[in-house]
Specification:
By secondary structure, the chain is an all-beta fold. 0% of the residues lie in helices and 48% in strands. The termini are far apart.
Length: 116
């Protein structure tokens, strides 16, 4: 729960994620059904990455008689490893799956040293 500008609490749902490591960095895949590109906000500040996904309300053409699907927005915060190059973080969303790539800085990647 987080307060809004008028101090009303807003409920967020924590999206389910898979996180994998690669030679180049990390990849986060998050389930965010109902979220489109315009409803995403990803920020990096003080070593933390915040993912916020806002869903569009469902419009019904008939009278709604029962509802189980909650329209809460998604929110998740990650503490980032200092080895991540935050200037090159990338994201895309496709069919309700958000993919965030977190590349390692070139200075921390393993490299081959040539022997003379």
């Amino acid at each position: 729960m987080a307060p809004t500008e008028d101090n009303r609490p807003v409920a967020f749902v924590t999206p389910l994620v898979d996180i994998e490591t690669t030679d180049d960095g990390y990849v986060i895949r998050a389930e965010m059904p109902g979220v489109e590109k315009g409803g995403l906000e990803i920020t990096v500040d003080n070593g933390e990455m915040t993912i916020l996904g806002r869903r569009k309300p469902t419009e019904f053409t008939a009278e709604l008689i029962y509802r189980e699907i909650e329209l809460h927005d998604f929110r998740r915060v990650y503490e980032l490893d200092p080895s991540i190059d935050v200037t090159k973080v990338g994201a895309k969303i496709d069919d309700g799956i958000l993919t965030v790539t977190l590349p390692k800085a070139e200075t921390v990647k393993p490299r081959k040293i040539s022997v003379q």
